[in-house]
Amino acid sequence: MKYYILAGEASGDLHGSNLIKELKLRDAEAQVRCWGGDLMQAQGAELVKHYRDLAFMGFVEVLINIKTILTNINFCKKDILQYQPDVLILIDYPGFNLRIAEFAKKNKLLVYYYISPQIWAWKQSRVYKIKQCVNHMFVILPFEKEFYKKFQYDVDFVGHPLLDAIDNYRQEAYNHSEATKKIVALLPGSRKQEVKQSLPLMLKMCSKFPDVQFCIAAAPSLSAEFYSSFIGNSQVKIVYNETYSLLQRANAALVTSGTATLETALFGVPEAVCYKGSKISYWIARQLIKVKYISLVNLIMDRLVVTELIQDDFNEAQLETELQTLLYNEQRKLALKKDFMELKSKLGGAGASAKTADLMIQYLKQNAQ
Question: Could you give the CA distance from residue 132 to residue 53 in angstroms, rounded to a whole number?
Answer without folding.
Answer: 29
